[in-house]
Amino acid sequence: MEMVLLTALGVGGATVIGSLLGFAFKKISHRFSDIVLSFAAGVMLCAAVVGLILPSLEYGGKGGFPVTVVGIFCGAVCLNLLDRIVPHLHRLSGVDQEAHPSQTEKLNKVLLFVMAIAIHNLPEGIAAGVGFGTGNTGEALTIAAGIALQNIPEGMVIIAPMLAAGMSRSRTFIAALMTGIIEVLGTLLGYLAVSVSYAILPFALAFAGGTMLYVISDEMIPETHAHGCERGATYSLLAGFALMLAMSHYLG
Hints:
Layout: H1 2-24, H2 30-60, H3 64-85, H4 89-92, H5 103-131, H6 137-157, H7 159-164, H8 169-196, H9 201-224, H10 230-251
């Protein structure tokens, strides 16, 4: 349990680290952001497939394939429903909007932007926690590392919009901290869920994998291919995938 708690703090803390970097580098180029985010997407893609979905098939036994498929789609549908409630990150950032809304409207959009990230952090935290349910600590840590890598650039990009909307530095940091705390709670929730009932482990692993695949396909890849750096983003994703594959092979 101590390892799970430390991992939860590490995963959530990665967002805070990213936010501190965001204070240091208020103006982050799209190219740099796309490369880092694509690398994180590659890491998460490998973690979702190798660390969650394949173990789901393994623990499900001969009849586990339908459970895994249902779990993947349930995870994706869950985030799809959340996306209907909370607008997409690229729409909320206001970067592509030609109009210049009032300060109050801008602040409302930024707060929705932060809320969207917080909501997406919950299933990511659950994925990190569920990984420990397999009993393979090395594999669970590689999954958590992949999620943490993704949280750093995410934490970086939420700072500038809040500061530009007129929020104080202290309130901005608190908002970023809350998004990290959501992920800590998600990690503990995922671990406790599979600890209570080992029978739900195959479904829980597939569900967590489905949420990660949804975030990668619906949010991360489109975002990294929207600013003219598609080739670099693609190779960066492959590099992230290869790194996580190596970690899973040698450390798992």
